[in-house]
Amino acid sequence: MLRKESFVPNEYYHIYNRTIFNLPEFKNTENARRLNQAFFIANSTKASEAFLFLRNNKNATMEDVLKIINRGKKLVDILCYVIMPDHYHLLLKERAENGITSFIHRCNISIAKYINIKNDRSGPLFESLFKSKHISINEYLLHLSLYIHLNPLDFLENKNWRNHKLKNWNLVRKKLLDYPWSSLRYFLNENYQDEIISGTEIILSQFKNRKEYEIFLQSWSEESKDIINDIVLD
Fold this sequence. Notes:
By secondary structure, this protein is of the alpha+beta class. The protein folds into 2 domains: 12-133, 2-Layer Sandwich (Alpha-Beta Plaits); 137-231, no CATH class. It is 44% helix and 12% strand. The chain has helices spanning 29-41, 47-56, 62-69, 99-119, 138-150, 153-156, 169-178, 184-188, 201-204, 210-218, 225-231; strands at residues 12-18, 76-83, 87-94, 131-135. Strands 2-3-1-4 form a 4-stranded antiparallel beta sheet, sandwiched between helices. The longest helix has 21 residues, at 99-119. The mean pLDDT is 90.
């Protein structure tokens, strides 16, 4: 089946992929960690070589893998990401022609192989085609980053945030920052390093500092409603 969306270099996209039958595979910490690792490794023209090296060297370190990856070029910029129990969201910039398609394909194949071998099963892990939406305006870009970073509240707290009813921000903030499978910590702490993400200047340069970005998350309001409803893919 052919994709309806064609990806254009230097353009931004919301990418979303769900497991078949909504299987909550990423409730498992090791599965989530492996997908998180795949986001890092797959984003290189040397990704196939890096994945092969990992499979053939049980004692391989991420430093070894990094050396291989750095010999290649990035396929995409990953600005924001979150891994949910049965799906993931990414905010990507296409850097090379077919970069997004190649990146997602490598991520999905890698994590599917890992989970299938571990569970002694076969077949696909994700729905046949990942979903995508072109980000055509700056307002959409900013609110997509908000949507991705608040998404874990669906199961960490409740879905009231989707109705713009964030309460007790300090508690909400702690829950979000304690959740390891998200780029939020980088956005709220300038000293936090996340090797997965790049190209975030287009978002962060619109705020005076990280605290102002946090206030953007905190001040969830009815004025954002129409934009967020348009962002949601499923």
